[in-house]
Amino acid sequence: MTKAELVSKIASKAELTKAEAAKALDATIEAVKEALKKGDKVTLVGFGSFYVSKRKARKGRNPRTGQEIKIPATKVPKFTAGKSLKEAVK
């Protein structure tokens, strides 16, 4: 499903115009990004949780040359599905 398809689905289910649905979706995505940037966890009960995970620095290999390289520590966004989402997918 693309973002445009999701906006159409939101518009029809919530009885909004596509423009209003697009604004609502963009605002939701932006709010989640801001919370994760601050290090907060975003929990949508029944749907799931977005959170930030830390990856330690590690050694890797350049696949082209085989040379060992250092991969720096980084933060990555993660998502864990909630119970009702897991059951809906079964």
Automatic annotation (TrEMBL):
SMART domains: BHL (SM00411). The keyword Heme does not apply. GO terms for molecular function: DNA binding; identical protein binding; structural constituent of chromatin. The keyword Aminoacyl-tRNA synthetase does not apply. It holds the Pfam family Bac_DNA_binding. Gene3D superfamilies: IHF-like DNA-binding proteins. Keywords: DNA condensation, DNA-binding. One of its GO terms (cellular component) is HU-DNA complex. InterPro entries: Hist_DNA-bd, Histone-like_DNA-bd_CS, IHF-like_DNA-bd_dom_sf. One of its GO terms (biological process) is DNA replication initiation. Belongs to the bacterial histone-like protein family. Histone-like DNA-binding protein which is capable of wrapping DNA to stabilize it, and thus to prevent its denaturation under extreme environmental conditions. This is Transcriptional regulator. The lineage of its organism: Bacteria, Pseudomonadati, Nitrospirota, Thermodesulfovibrionia, Thermodesulfovibrionales.
